[in-house]
Amino acid sequence: MANLKEIKKALETVDSTKIFFVDFNGRIMSLPINPDNIESIIKNGIGFDGSSIAGYGTVDSSDRLLFPDPETFKVLKFSDEIVGFFIASIYDEKDKPAQSDPRTILKNILDEAEREFGFKFLLGPEHEFFLLKNDKKQKNLHTDHGLYFQSSPHDRGEAVRNRIINILKECGIAFEKAHHEVTPSQHEINLEPTCPLNGADRTVLFNYVTQQIAAEFG
After folding, report:
1. What's the pLDDT tens digit per position in 20-58?
2. Are β-strands 126-130 and 186-191 bridged in parallel, bridged antiparallel, or unpaired?
3. Long-range contacts made by residues 102-111, C-beta under 8 angstroms, separation at least 24?
4. Angle, CA of 123, 125 and 130, to the nearest 5°
5. What is the distance between the alpha carbons of residues 7 and 13, in angstroms, rounded to a whole number?
6. How far is 57 from 46, CA to CA, in rounded Å?
7. Phi/psi of residue 117, each to 5°?
8. Cα separation, 90 vs 71, whole angstroms
9. pLDDT for 184-213, tens place per residue?
10. CA 20 to 30 Å from 179, out of 47, 57, 67, 197?
């Protein structure tokens, strides 16, 4: 969904609107914004302190801008909150993408691959994760001792995977397959192949949704 009119209408139904990006370690960062300002923010960006996130600025030169990409907009329906979701690119200043921004780096590589070699890529990631008990006092944090492809009730993460899949489906992202992996508490969800930039953005979305749903299940 990239139509600004449709985005504004959809944002009327959400509880919060957030702009997401990652730091150099792949950790998800987010900035809640006022949805009434979305048109201006998409056009002009919104400022943040780059020096407070390693790699994005120094104390002497810390002002950076987040530009949400309207093509990445999704509505995520969690049990206790509906979130308007955007992925942002990082800019040093307007019209000057930050060369340390992962999205900018990926775009430049993809452009060079097509321009210099005529290559285009298709990405089909396997998203693997562990579901562990949220209790650090316990010695054994495993939630199950299931095996590769083992069915329920031994696969105790199936309900969690299905919840993740349903939220992704509601925002237009289809999965290919989902199953228990080889190791206890290990799970995998494969999404349909896509272009690398969308695949990277979708991975941020997937990680956010998965962490949120894992928290819902404790």
Report:
1. 999 888 899 999 999 999 999 999 999 988 778 876 765
2. antiparallel
3. 102/22, 102/200, 103/21, 103/69, 103/197, 103/200, 103/201, 106/196, 106/197, 106/200, 107/197, 110/196, 110/197
4. 165
5. 10
6. 15
7. -125, -5
8. 16
9. 999 999 999 999 999 999 999 999 999 999
10. 197
**Assigned token pair, 83:** 């979130």
Is the confidence at residue 1, as pLDDT, over 60? no
The tokens describing 216, both together, are 């819902």
pLDDT digits (tens, 9 = 90+) for 80-136: 999 999 999 999 889 899 888 999 999 999 999 999 999 999 999 899 999 999 887
Look-up of token digits 């495993």: 142
